[in-house]
Specification:
The complex is a heterodimer of chains A (117) and B (113). Chain A has 117 residues and is mainly β. Chain A contains no helices and twelve strands. In chain A, strands 2, 5, 6, 10, 11 and 12 form a six-stranded mixed sheet that branches. A four-stranded antiparallel sheet of chain A has the order 3-9-8-7, with no helix packed on it. Chain B is 0% helix and 53% strand. Classes of the chains: A mainly beta (117), B mainly beta (113). At the A-B interface, strand 6 and strand 11 of A face strand 4, strand 5 and strand 10 of B.
């Protein structure tokens, strides 16, 4: 069965510093990986995804993620954090396959990012 | 394009009642999925509909049901509400199937008293 782990419940970073939000996954076959962000009282906003190709994926709002197959990781990064980046971040993997042409997303528990002014 | 819309945004019900939540996907999107988000369990998959057919279902009791209409709009229904059903219910749409990116609505916050 597929799974996603976000080992840090909370990450604190000073404004202007680089940030990393960690994610590791377990899935059979080639992984389809996603990052979403959730602001208070809002739904999830898509940031980026990895399907195939370059291991460094660039997404919205200056975020990027590095896919590492050997370490089964997909860490989210940003070179310079903004206070407005403070939110809840979710890593997700596609799967399992339902057998009817349908997949679901399996999410990690989320990491709360706080950017300190 | 307009995003995914969900109505109502907030709902308060009492135990034993039933509730219906509505989701309008992004125009052209045919797949609609529902998720339940709670602080304890995180985001859990409820079910997915494509062309009016339920193609996938998560591990939720039969009290949770849904349907999709010919215009791709979807509803989910929870009968005999329990306190533990209090959650944020999120709807997501995608263009073809779940292989593509899912775009989420703002959610419906359900409180069961």
């Amino acid at each position: 069965a597929q799974s996603v782990a976000q080992p840090e419940d909370q990450v604190n970073v000073a404004e202007g510093n680089p940030l990393t939000v960690k994610c590791t996954y377990s899935v059979s076959g080639n992984p389809y990986l996603f990052w979403y962000v959730q602001y208070p009282n809002r739904g999830l906003q898509f940031l980026l995804k990895y399907i195939t190709g370059d291991n460094l994926v660039k997404g919205s709002y200056g975020f990027e993620a590095e896919f590492n197959k050997s370490q089964t990781s997909f860490h989210l990064k940003k070179p310079s954090a903004l206070v407005s980046d403070s939110a809840l971040y979710f890593c997700a993997v596609r799967g399992p396959y339902s057998g009817a042409g349908s997949y679901q997303l399996t999410f990690g528990k989320g990491t709360k990012l706080s950017v300190i002014p | 394009k307009a995003g995914v819309t969900q109505t109502p945004r907030y709902l308060i019900k009492t135990r034993g009642q039933q509730v219906t939540l509505s989701c309008s996907p992004i125009s052209g999107h045919r797949s609609v999925s529902w998720y339940q988000q709670t602080p304890g369990q995180g985001l859990q998959f409820l079910f997915e509909y494509f062309s009016e057919t339920q193609r996938n279902k998560g591990n939720f009791p039969g009290r949770f049901s849904g349907r999709q209409f010919s215009n791709s709009r979807s509803e989910m229904n929870v009968s005999t509400l329990e306190l533990g059903d209090s959650a944020l219910y999120l709807c997501a749409s995608s263009p073809l199937d779940l292989a593509d990116t899912q775009y989420f609505g703002p959610g419906t916050r359900l409180t069961v008293l």
